[in-house]
Specification:
The structure holds 2 protein chains of 2 kinds. Chain A is mostly beta strands. Chain A has no helices and 11 strands. Chain B is mostly beta strands. In chain B, a hairpin with a 2-residue loop joins β5 and β6. Chain B is globular and about 40 Å long. Classes of the chains: A mainly beta, B mainly beta.
Chain lengths: 117, 107
Amino acid sequence: QVQLEQSGAEVKKPGSSVKVSCKASGDNFSTYTINWVRQAPGQGLEWMGGIIPILGTPDYAQKFRGRVTLTADESTSTAYMELSSLKSEDTAVYYCARVIGTSWDYWGQGTLVTVSS
Amino acid sequence: SYVLTQPPSVSVAPGQTARITCGGDNIGSKTVHWYQQRPGQAPVLVVYDDSDRPSGIPERFSGSTSGNTATLTINRVEDGDEADYYCQVWDTTIDWVFGGGTKLTVL
């Protein structure tokens, strides 16, 4: 059984950065795409980007290019999402999810990031 | 950019059939997936590749696509089906796109 365990909630100041981790267990981490999506309060799902750990080359949504950095550490089966220049509008729950085919079959539990002065 | 349009809400009585639509330009030519999200929880895949169900998802859930509309059908709706439902597609030109979500209310 695949599990994705995300890091805990964060409170950040505007202008700062946040780094969220997503640790995988139960399957071969390196060969699947790990996608990141966020959900603002009361809103829908917004894709941010994805990475295949074994390749290490991320793909970013146009909206987040220049502000988001995705990385992966194969040795610890952990993916990371770093978002910089935080604004209040970045307050959201951030999810990682594994891709199989083109569907997202396993999801992390989500990480609440609150941006507030 | 590619837009997927879902009705904001659908209401149905227990035991009846719920149909949630997802409209997109020529969506029938794309592969559609559906996710269920209960309040405070992560999304769960309920239909993939237009009409397949992951293991553990009841047969009451089914999907179909035709022309510009994809449909998630939930037969014999139960109280536990009350949730938000999202459609999703991917292709090389649009990347990953989600619909805006539909809140299913069980009356």
